[in-house]
Amino acid sequence: MLRSQFEEELEKLHNQFYAMGNEVLSQINRTVRAFVSHDRELAQEVISDDEKVNSYEVKLEKKSLEIIALQQPVSQDLRTVITVLKASNDLERMGDHAVSIARATINMKGEERIQEVEEMIKQMGRDVKNLVEATLDIYLSGDAEKAYEVAAQDEKINDYFDKIREAATQAIRENPDAIIAGRDYFQVIAFLERIGDYAKNICEWVIYFETGKIVEL
């Protein structure tokens, strides 16, 4: 394969990864909106669309392994393929957690809700979406220094987790009828926190792609 053709193949990998990232971003945005607005139809849409995310990952994995087997890339070319292979797995996990939130939305029946906690979850979801979006932006730009800054935003997500858990626990003490909703709140914020962790993983892969160094942020 000519070098120009090989570079085209790598560019296709990048583009497919970014398209997958945008699909996951949409999933996160919709699943949080569905949960806080109690929209089961939107939640079901998120679940149905998970197949798109899975399909992207399968195609990216197949193409990445094909390039490694047939082209035997070295140096930065190899880092490109490994980055896409690993980071696409992180995106797929984000999609799985978005689906789990959607399922929690559908499972909630008519139990007592805690408005204050749901507003905090809405804010947490917004910042998780922003973190994932920033992660995709640095993937496109290949800015390793910016990757450190973006990864640090995960601390804000962790803070949300602690504050919401505390607020929900206190609300349940005051109103035991909300205990079932509280269980779902704890699950949802755990899923959002994990999405933040996977976004941070992708920042690590961007740094690896640009520098060849494996770091833990």
Biggest sheet overview? none
**Which series of helices and strands comes N to C?**
HHHHHHH
Summarize model confidence as the mean pLDDT: 92
**Unreliable stretches covering 5 or more consecutive residues:** none
Protein name: Phosphate-specific transport system accessory protein PhoU
Family: Belongs to the PhoU family.
Keywords: Coiled coil, Cytoplasm, Phosphate transport, Transport
Coiled coil: 107-134
Task: Explain what the structure shows.
It is built from seven helices and no strands. It is an all-alpha fold and 217 residues long. It has a single domain, classed as Phosphate transport system protein phou homolog 2, domain 2 (Methane Monooxygenase Hydroxylase, Chain G, domain 1), CATH 1.20.58. Helix 1 (3-37) runs parallel beside helix 3. It is elongated and about 65 Å long. The model has no long low-confidence stretch (mean pLDDT 92).
Summary keywords:
elongated; 88% helix; 7 helices; 217 residues; mainly alpha; 0% strand; Methane Monooxygenase Hydroxylase, Chain G, domain 1; single chain
In brief, what are we looking at here?
The chain has 217 residues and is mostly helical. The protein has 7 helices and no strands.
Give the topology.
Blueprint: H1 3-37, H2 40-71, H3 75-107, H4 115-141, H5 144-152, H6 154-174, H7 179-211
Helix pairs in contact: 1-2, 1-3, 1-4, 2-3, 3-7, 4-5, 4-6, 4-7, 5-7, 6-7
